[in-house]
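FW: tagging you since you asked about this chain on Friday. Here's the raw sequence from the shared folder, copied in full. Didn't touch anything.
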Amino acid sequence: MKKYSSFTWLVVALAALLFTGNLHNLNPSIWAASSPAPKLPQIVSFATAAEGTTSYIVGGAFANILKKYLNLKVAIETSGAATRWVPLMGRQEVDFGIHCAYPDMNDAYYGLAGYQKMGPQPILSFADGHIVPWALMTNDPSIKTVYDLKGKRLYGRIVGQSLYERGVPALLSSAGLTGQVEVVTFPNVVEAARGLVEGRADALLYLPMVAPVLEANRSRQLYAVAVPKDVADKVNKIEPALMAGIWKKGMAFAAQDTPSMFQGCGMAVRETLSPDVVAAILRTVFSHYDEYKGSHSVLPEWTAQNGIRIHATPFHPGAISYYKEKGLWTAEAEKRNQELIAKRRK
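HL: got it, structure written out here
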């Protein structure tokens, strides 16, 4: 039997495909070498708040996906507030940080406020996620809207938290109340909730569904205070981490749907992590959305489509690569990103 070379067999096979019209069904990888898979680290770490918080649950859901599909070891570091884990990220001890503190991310990136001595930190955006009410609440039923705060005492400042340092003045100026509300400093929400019950302040700006606030509501009826959308939209122009939303009836003590301010929660990534690795991790997480979306009420919002909706700090090049791949990175997003980068260079 006559033997044929491998090249001869290839010619014969191609001729058959051309004759049958099936050449277009060939896998493109036959013709071009596929891009090599990125070299992944043996372990990645996610900084979150305490066990049981939404950021801890998001971190755990993503960790399960990465362990399952990339065979990565994932460490969940319950480091608490962003001010605690940002320095760890600077030392490459933490790879990702899940937070509800975009103003702190902004300050860290630019080396502002509490980061002035440390200087700009190697922290970039990875993905924007869910939003939660940053809501006005009161012990006084006559205070129905933000405008009714005139002449009242508001728990509206926590030392060292940029969300309050910038967000509260933005709210008062947007409502035309600058200088007309006494803004009271509180050390933590436990003290503020107790102060509301005891009447040491008339209103509080905080998350309404946290345990100390719910406990205070059992002692003394609290009420949701409306922040009209036009006011919240003005705040958003000053502080992009805050936006308009509806505090739904039945959430905490809201007796009806109430227009409110919402704060964003998202995930940051250390600037020094390889772009190929960042893109691979983001691609893997969002490709398995159906597997994690039911793990907690906030997780359905963690979609690729919501991934760049806040954009308070520049995105990591690896994340941008993924969003471009999905057709989500617009000219507007690129312009915003370049503006944020240029601001750091000044």
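FW: The chain is about 40% helix and 20% strand.
HL: agreed, and The first strand starts at residue 43 and ends at 48.
FW: great, closing this out.
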